[in-house]
Specification:
single chain; 615 residues; mainly beta; 9-stranded mixed beta sheet; 6-stranded mixed beta sheet
Length: 615
Amino acid sequence: MLIQMRGGKRRVEHVRRRRIHPYIAHLAGALLAGVMLVSTTLAQARPIDPPDPDPCSRRNPPPGCTVGNPKGTLAGVTRDASGVHVSGAASDPDAAGPVEVTIEINGRYVGSVLANGPGGAFSGTVGARAGSEVCARAINRNKGEDVQIGCRRIDIQVDPFGAVDEVTSTAMGLRVRGWAIDPDTNAATSVHVYVDGQDRRLGVIASTDRPDVAAANPGYGSEHGFDITLPGSKLHTSVCVDAVNQGPGDLRRLGCGRVDRAISLLTLNIEGTHEEWTNDNGQGSVGIPWRERYRRLARWMAASGTLPDLIALQEVPARKFWVTPVPNLEPPDYESLFVIIDQIERLTGAHYRIAYLSADYVRNGWNSLYQGKALIYNADRLRNTTTLVNAFAVAHDNTTRVGVHMRTSWPCAVTSPEFAGHCNLIDSTSQTDREGRHWVSSYRNPTTGEWARGPAAAVFELVAAPGKHIIVFNVHANRWCPSNGDQCDLAADRADQLALRALVDEVTRVWGPRPKLIPPIVAGDFNGGVDMPTSDLSTREATLPDFNETKAENIDFVLGGKSSIYQSSYEPTVVGLTYPAREPFSTGAERGYCGSVGTVLADHCSVIAQYLPTE
């Protein structure tokens, strides 16, 4: 029946059903019965599958099945000269015969052994590679998968290892003692010895008897020590030893050392910023930018491996105010020192700080130039202790105070973004004002009445040996001689040297009760010699007869106080050298400078000296 709506009226229509012919219905029923009969017959004829003898062989085995995976354990791992020795056991439940066990170090395959001993035991040696974890994997046969059977944590080294035990100064030279082992062999290892970066002894066989080394490293024997004496100069700031590798691995630095309590000092007049030098062939001249010359100092330190504990500098620019257009108008404020310190750290990794920059106005025509003395030091080795005695200080530009007193440094007001934050390299007592306090000995020229700053001083101690102090005096002598060759002012010359004498006497007096590591050091540019006119100006006499000359180079000197007068922890043995090597020049008024145009630092040599404990 179908109900339709037309014109809003319901209309019902009857649908007529069609009837199936009886014959067709009978035939369909017969066919269905036949199909059911055939299906029943076939089902009764199919054989029944036997029970599964190994349920674990099914595609989806029940819980608890091993699926034929091998089993085992890694029992031991040791390092020896042949490689890495491993032991343990492994078996495969569905495969007879030996099981292959592969070995990995830090995930990298290094070799394999066979587990074919009683109970599947394995024991063997595989190659070594550097790492900290050794793992064993049993290789599956037939059903199942490979299985990791254990890991062991162990430090596997392939590079040589050892130590520099001692560096000492002896009558025969520098003695270097230590040991070296290459883990890939029981044989003795070769070592190279470097002093301040320069090779001094290559290919020394480390074969002396060291029972202590054998006890700490079983399996390698005891003949792995070295005891070397390097004749010649004992000056050094670092003695390093490299071990030569055998087999896998690389050359390895065993370590570095230096003579305990040895103190080194470099003095250099860096000669301002705008200077010219006669060419190497004597024809014409060349200007070398100040940044380039100052960076040469750092490059020499890196190339030679020499890291002086103290660097006394003279003619250090503090500030320039130029009226006339002259090239190389920089540096402002402390940039000259910042360039040197930055380059040293970048090339050597050493951290230097500024103890002080003591600068005065210097006549320079219409231009204004402030420059003076500065002292920087290796803060990895030394600590500034200047203010432990009499920390009161006058301002850096005070021209009324004369005599020995403490004074603040030139103020730091860096404007260059390159050196933002570098003022923090200047030592201070408050950690905020960066005042760089230091001792000075100012005086007045007896002829002109002009005020002069005089020499400076600071005090330090070894970080590794606190409480024993090192007093350092920095000199740039004023000889008061005109450049036109007129008669020198001998009275002013004597006054300048007497200022040094007064500074040495007063600072050593006030520091008298405190222990000294070594006698005081005087270093700097003496502009001719370490003497002065006598009181009647008729002849000359020694300014510091209580000091010995450590190293001299015509103008630059390093002096050490006599131990019989200045008591200290030890009486030092002193060695020194100059840099660069002096080369003669015949042209120019002051062209006896060291080096060539390509190496020159200033118009005269730098001097480095080292104070060593008594042998």
